Amino acid sequence: MTINTTTLEANLTTKINATSGSTDGKEFLLLGKAVEAVNTAISNNSLTSTNNLSDLPNAATARTNLGVVASTGGTFTGDVDFGANKITYANVYSQLADLPSASTYHGMFAHVHATGKGYYAHGGNWIPLVNEDTSGNVTIGGNLTVSGTTTTVNSTTLDVADLNITVAKGAADAAAADGAGLTVDGASATFNYASSGDKWTTNKPLDVTGAVTATGATVNGKLDIEEVFEKVQVSTTTSGTITFPVDEYGVRLQSVNQTANRTINFSNVNANLGIGQSVTCAIAMAQGSTAYYLNAYQIDGSAVTPKWQGGSAPTSGNASGIDVYNFTIIKTASATFTVLASVSQFA
Fold first, then answer.
1. Helices (H), strands (E): how many in the chain?
2. Residue 113 and residue 96: Cα distance in Å, rounded?
3. Domain count, the chain
4. Residue of 81, 249, 297, 336 with fewest CB within 10 Å of its CB?
5. pLDDT tens, residue by residue, 35-83
6. Torsion angle of C-alpha atoms 64, 65, 71, 73, degrees rounded to 10
7. Same-domain pairing of 205 and 254
8. What mean pLDDT is predicted for residues 137-154?
9. Burial category of 281 from C-beta neighbours within 10 Å (exposed 0-12, middle 13-18, buried 19 and up)
10. How many CB atoms sit inside 10 A of residue 272's CB?
11. Are 186 and 239 in a shared domain?
12. Pick from 144, 138, 142: which is nearest to 127 by CA?
């Protein structure tokens, strides 16, 4: 049934405003039904005939009561629950400067077209997200901290610009760093630090093409050497005690003709030789027309008596040539040595 709301409203107004006459219960019932029909008709006609709530009378109140935001903008004062439904929108800003206040919109996500990056608001700042480009590359502008237990790098080339790589980071001492190093999978090859002896260890042979410089070397096995180049200390002194540090060189040349008999002191011996080890030293002494010789011998400042090849110690030098003394020092106990000596003339 179609209700002419205009005519009905006029009739109701006349009836209600009447100052005379009587109204029975039936008329009140009809009046109630009419009012209900008018409200329903107005509501239905208005909502179905407009696309904008602003077309309705008192639109702001209607929007508030209905919980609807106007199509041209609006603000929610409470949470909005979309349930399992999806929200599709373009939250794009042209420049970084166009982003709203990060403090006001804490937790907001946005895309900036100029940088091609995504951002989120936190702590009053817009923080860029880690972005993968169209080639799958990722660039991190700051530091990267990985707090997991395993980090796997599945790349064929690993380039590190830093000059130093630290392992066992935060180790309290050498014992805590014991075993730190490098392992080559498949070959079971290791290069590790050992706190015992404070040294590097490797379980594979080490092949070096260039020179190796070291302050010492211990070989627990066969030593295969093609050539040996030994350091020679050249001295121009002609008198006084000769100090011969055995841990610095093995050959010494007194290049100027000697002017007096001399004492030789082999230093740094007990600290560097183990019991059952030996060291060999040679000293060549230039002689003029009057020859001199070594007549006293010491190890770490204490006198020793060498055992001489042929059974006799020298009592003079050989004039106009070079006398070469050879000493082999054998450590038999702490600060206890056997010294084997010989002297030869080179003219």
1. 3, 17
2. 9
3. 4
4. 81
5. 565 555 444 444 444 455 455 555 555 555 555 556 667 777 888 888 9
6. 10
7. no
8. 88
9. buried
10. 14
11. no
12. 142
Residues 334 and 250 in one domain: yes
CB-side neighbour CA atoms (13 Å) of 132: 2
**Which pair of tokens denotes residue 267?**
């230093």
CA angle 89, 92, 93 (to 5 degrees): 150
Print the domain residue range for 306: 232-346
CB atoms near residue 252 (< 10 Å): 23
Q: Is residue 261 part of a domain?
A: yes
Q: Are residues 336 and 240 in the same domain?
A: yes
Q: What angle do CA 237, 279, 304 make, to 5 degrees?
A: 65
Place of tokens 């609807």: 68
Q: Which amino acid is at 229?
A: F
Task: Tell me how far apart the alpha carbons of residues 252 and 325 are, in angstroms, rounded to a whole number.
Answer: 10
> In this structure, are residues 117 and 131 in contact, taking their beta carbons and an 8 Å threshold?
yes
CB 105 within 8 A of CB 120: no
Beta strands 307-308 and 262-267, pairing class: unpaired
- Whether 4 contacts 42, CB under 8 Å: no
Residue with tokens 């059974």: 311
330 shares a domain with 260: yes
Cα–Cα nearest to 336, from 300, 307, 312, 296: 300
Angle, CA 116 vertex, CA 114 and CA 122 arms, to 5°: 95
Is the pLDDT reported for residue 120 higher than 80?
yes
Buried b (16+ CB within 10 A) or exposed e, 104-124: eeeebebebeeeebebbbeee
Cα separation of the two ends of the chain? 145
